């Protein structure tokens, strides 16, 4: 992917708009990844990459709503070559509420909707092509950006947040009610013995 000099300048200017966020987002995982140590590990993008993440980069995808998190999972599976529906072997899925405390987050909408920034934004949201978003992600991750908020390509009205784990400290992402969740899982396991 090659952007023009004006488009690259728009990306550089956009990096300067990074701002803090502190909010709650949602993450859907299949049961084999429900250990709280795995939920926010970023292992999935290391293996496969994704929108705004090259393979090999530890990143975590979150959504503004719990239903949005589940819809994104379905879309990702379809893009990676599976059917649009998640097989019953992948259930139950667990949706975690995740508290974010990030200092350097970009909003894709701040690139604008026209001109060079608008062209970059449109290319990053191409439904079947992640090339532009991966190129942009490589630049912004190197600049120490912690995350990007971008609209769901599912056209659900939800936004997604990708968080670059390497650019965050241990307090940046926290599963809400983690202790209660662990206790509940232990109680369920104890009843099954």
What's this model, at a glance?
With 193 residues, this protein is an alpha+beta fold. The protein has helices at 5-15, 36-39, 43-48, 66-79, 115-124, 131-142, 178-192, and strands spanning 19-30, 59-63, 93-107, 147-151, 159-164, 173-175. α1 packs across α5 (115-124).
Write a structural description.
The chain is α+β, with helices and mostly antiparallel strands and 193 residues long. It has seven helices and six strands; from the N terminus they run H-E-H-H-E-H-E-H-H-E-E-E-H. It has one domain: Diphtheria Toxin, domain 1, CATH 3.90.175. Strands 1, 2, 3, 4, 5 and 6 form a six-stranded mixed sheet that branches. Helix 1 crosses helix 5. The mean pLDDT is 86.
Element order: H for helix, E for strand:
HEHHEHEHHEEEH
Largest sheet: 6 strands, mixed
* Overall number of domains: 1
Supply the helix-strand structural class.
alpha+beta
Could you estimate the helical fraction of the residues in percent?
25-40%
Envelope shape:
elongated
How far apart, in Å, are the first and last alpha carbons? Answer: 55 Å
The number of E-state strands comes to 6
How much strand content do the residues show?
Answer: 15-25%
What is the residue-mean pLDDT, rounded to a whole number?
86
Computed CA radius of gyration, to the nearest angstrom = 17 Å
Number of helices: 7
Low-confidence stretches: none
Kindly identify the CATH topology. Diphtheria Toxin, domain 1
CATH class: Alpha Beta
In the CATH hierarchy, the architecture is Alpha-Beta Complex
């Amino acid at each position: 992917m090659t952007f023009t000099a004006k488009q690259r300048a728009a990306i550089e200017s956009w990096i300067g708009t990074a701002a803090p966020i502190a909010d709650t987002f949602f993450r859907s995982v299949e049961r084999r990844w429900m250990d709280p140590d795995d939920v926010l590990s970023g292992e999935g993008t290391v293996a496969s990459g994704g929108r705004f993440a090259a393979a090999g980069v530890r990143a975590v995808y979150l959504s503004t709503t719990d239903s949005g998190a589940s819809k994104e999972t379905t879309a990702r599976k379809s893009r990676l070559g599976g059917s649009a529906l998640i097989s019953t072997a992948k259930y139950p899925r667990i949706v975690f509420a995740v508290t974010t405390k990030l200092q350097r987050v970009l909003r894709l909408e701040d690139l604008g909707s026209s001109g060079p920034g608008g062209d970059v934004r449109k290319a990053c949201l191409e439904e079947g092509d992640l090339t532009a978003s991966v190129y942009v992600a490589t630049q912004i991750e190197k600049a120490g950006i912690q995350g990007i908020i971008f609209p769901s390509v599912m056209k659900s009205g939800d936004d997604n947040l990708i968080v670059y784990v390497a650019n965050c400290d241990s307090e940046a992402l926290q599963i809400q009610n983690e202790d209660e969740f662990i206790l509940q899982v232990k109680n369920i396991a104890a009843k099954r013995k």
